[in-house]
Amino acid sequence: MKNRRHAKILDIINTNSVDTQEELLNLLKKEGFSVTQATVSRDIKELRLLKTLSPDGKYRYTSAAKNAFDMKSNFQTLFKSSVNSLDFAENIIVIKTLSGMAQAVCTSFDSMEFEGVLGTIAGDDTIFIACKTKENSKFLVNDLKKLL
């Protein structure tokens, strides 16, 4: 059932402009899937869906399973348009985003699999990135600042 639902989610986001979990939930229900918001949220995480900027200026769910160039391009676009500031202290990087965009930026960041990153946590407008070393943090912050 889960595999069928995941396939349907990918089909839905490829054929529709879906910009909220609620919208995805409703489209799944129309397709005969009885799911909760929590299930849709887990599915989005498991499928590594990203919110990317569409030509109409709205953020839409897209699949992170695209090729590496598309993933990098999507990350750069999302990062540039959503991040307000970033800095680090020792091995922790703090990224401030537009309100409501931290989850999308963090998911996109995670898909890039940067070297030296232990893990990430995102809130509404803040992302914490734990790096292995202070040097990893400094190097990564310098690279990310180039995107702004």
Structure explained in plain terms:
A hairpin with a 2-residue loop joins β3 and β4. It is built from six helices and six strands. It starts with a helix and ends with a helix. It is elongated. α2 (21-30) crosses α3 (37-46) and α4 (68-82) runs antiparallel to α5 (102-112). It folds into two domains: 2-47, Orthogonal Bundle (Arc Repressor Mutant, subunit A); 77-147, Gyrase A, domain 2, CATH 3.30.1360. It is of the alpha+beta class and 148 residues long. The strands form two sheets. Strands 3-4-6-5 form a four-stranded antiparallel sheet. A two-stranded antiparallel ribbon has the order 1-2.
Give a topology summary.
Layout: H1 2-15, H2 21-30, H3 37-46, E1 49-53, E2 59-63, H4 68-82, E3 83-89, E4 92-97, H5 102-112, E5 117-122, E6 126-131, H6 134-147
Antiparallel strand pairs: 1-2, 3-4, 4-6, 5-6
Quick description:
By secondary structure, the chain is an alpha+beta fold. Helix content is 50%, strand content 24%. The protein has helices at 2-15, 21-30, 37-46, 68-82, 102-112, 134-147; strands at residues 49-53, 59-63, 83-89, 92-97, 117-122, 126-131.
